[in-house]
Amino acid sequence: MRRIILNNPRKRNALSLSMLESLREDILTDVDSPDLRVIIISAEGPVFSSGHDLKELTSAQGREYHTRVFHTCAQVMTLIQDVPVPVIAMVNGVATAAGCQLVASCDVALASDKSTFATPGVNVGLFCSTPAVAIGRAVPRKVAMEMLFTGTPISAHEALVHGLLSKVVPEERLEAETLAIAQRVCGASRPVVALGKAAFQRQMSQGRDAAYASASKVMVDNLALRDGQEGIRAFIEKRKPVWSHRVENVHD
Amino acid sequence: MRRIILNNPRKRNALSLSMLESLREDILTDVDSPDLRVIIISAEGPVFSSGHDLKELTSAQGREYHTRVFHTCAQVMTLIQDVPVPVIAMVNGVATAAGCQLVASCDVALASDKSTFATPGVNVGLFCSTPAVAIGRAVPRKVAMEMLFTGTPISAHEALVHGLLSKVVPEERLEAETLAIAQRVCGASRPVVALGKAAFQRQMSQGRDAAYASASKVMVDNLALRDGQEGIRAFIEKRKPVWSHRVENVHD
Amino acid sequence: MRRIILNNPRKRNALSLSMLESLREDILTDVDSPDLRVIIISAEGPVFSSGHDLKELTSAQGREYHTRVFHTCAQVMTLIQDVPVPVIAMVNGVATAAGCQLVASCDVALASDKSTFATPGVNVGLFCSTPAVAIGRAVPRKVAMEMLFTGTPISAHEALVHGLLSKVVPEERLEAETLAIAQRVCGASRPVVALGKAAFQRQMSQGRDAAYASASKVMVDNLALRDGQEGIRAFIEKRKPVWSHRVENVHD
């Protein structure tokens, strides 16, 4: 289990270019190790993340620098969905703009009930168009558009109802509930989870029939994994499975 | 109105290959008859369906057999969406893995408030990748992913809020409410419903402008149906329409 | 701020061809003027809109006329999403069929708590296939399908939970809450909002990676706008931004 903690509360955990680069590195480190099973992203202080560092986005830095910032940001957000382990956001406070995009990009997201979520870029003349890629794919269109056009925050409860969050709990239980979900994920076989996560991302971008064709093949491949067969045998024999956590086929 | 009842409660209504084949046959029988207007799928016993029969998925059966199981399963699930009459799931109990996929695949789904829904395959080393095709298109992504990664069941109420179900009622009213919806569907013209159901599936897989082009043509075709004109005339004349339930055009 | 009021309550604000044409004209008038920042669509009387005028859809008018009706309707609905200013629906009453489609097509939608939403075409032999294009992209599939197959109305609260509405308020506060949201939108820079709205529609029709590529470029373009830089400078200098509302780049 890897914990990544946004650790610049004085700057409201702004996703500066260096913060994004360090996040990318933290996510990628040993990501292919059989020992890594889940990543939790949380933050120090009352703001989960306020999004991009606006001081980096003035005309002084110039178009090329701006391009690099958004390119790196998109890399981090898509990386979260593409790495072979689930990434859990644990939010205790305010998540705005690219900070809200980060929450939307995680596979699972828990928040304390005092947390709020907003895309207020429109108020500072920078419409949250890249956050909208993640948020527009997490919540219904009209929810996303009202957030984008008005900048008005939504509560943790609204975020839960609309699909931005997986679970909302009182602040004092946030850590324990997050760890409980992380433990459940760690209790599963790593290659099985990796196969399933990749298959999910792939099939969701396909039409229904292509999705069934690709997912059906994944099921058969999953059954050929040593851990796939171990799980089924353990179930039939009414015992706990013993995972190898390795990408090995039954007949390898 | 056709009732299909999963009838192997001793095996938790597992979707074995033979159960899937029989389901496919039950759905297809006389599916083009003007007398068939709606199909209801329900189950005997406290488990709606526990999904695939794991005993069929051991390495003893081999890759070819596994492929056939998932191919048949995808056929049944897509058939439900492609037949010309609405298919209603009536769930009273636990629906897991491919059993949950079956609920997600139906056009309308009612459940008693004690029912629960889960994709626990990850716990037995077989990630619910094919159930995810149907569930990921029914509920928000993060809801689907938490179900898939943790295997934790969601309640009927959560399933309703997130779009997996159309209605949740107390157990004692489940049958009556389901029949009431089925009766409403039977009160409509069969070719009108068939045209609309097919158009819905098609346009949802298209981009917005192509969707409007195809759906607009469907509206014009619908108006050319004898039952389309009968409905509008009846409305204008303030009387009940008398449907032919046949695919006939006004000028045929 | 432009108010468009459906003003034929005696005919339940039916979207006749002439009503659709006048709606199209109202939306397009001066739509490129820097002074226009938001459009509000509301209605006189207890019915927001009952949808198409069925008297225009009898076989007497013929296929060509029907085609023109649905073509014009699709134009209006897509225009709402494509014009450079947000369009807000303010609903106080019943919105059915193409009337419900109109609500689903707006960027933001508020309704009084007594409002209801339905697609009852199936009951008069005309399945709501074109309304389904907008509604199927606003709410979960099963919610859309139950509405389409049964024609049963959903409440404003259900519409809110499922994403058809942005906000539900008591009737006496509907006007004030709608104007408050409209004012917020008017407080933002017009070219920033226009860029963001167009980017949202575009990226939502793309795959994730293409969406990030196009949205990232939009962010950089937004930063090159005079109003983009003014907003960021104002934020850093802790003052209110002064928008030009004009499409001008910093280095123009």
Mean pLDDT of chain A: 97
Query: Runs of chain A with pLDDT <50, length 5+?
Result: none
* Structural class by secondary-structure content of chain A: alpha/beta
CATH topology of the largest domain in chain A: 2-enoyl-CoA Hydratase, Chain A, domain 1
Which shape of chain A, going by the Cα principal axes?
globular
The major β-sheet of chain A equals: 5 strands, parallel
Number of domains of chain A: 2
* Oligomer category: homotrimer
CATH class of the largest domain in chain A: Alpha Beta
- Architecture of the largest domain in chain A, CATH level 2? Alpha-Beta Complex
* Major sheet strand order of chain A: 1-2-4-6-9
Distance between the termini of chain A: 28 Å
The CATH homologous superfamily of the largest domain in chain A is termed: 2-enoyl-CoA Hydratase, Chain A, domain 1
Rg value of chain A: 19 Å
- State which percent range the strand residues of chain A make up: 5-15%
By DSSP, the count of extended strands of chain A is 9
Note the total helix count of chain A: 10
Biggest interface, chains and residues, is: A-B, 58 and 44 residues
- Helix share of residues of chain A? 40-55%
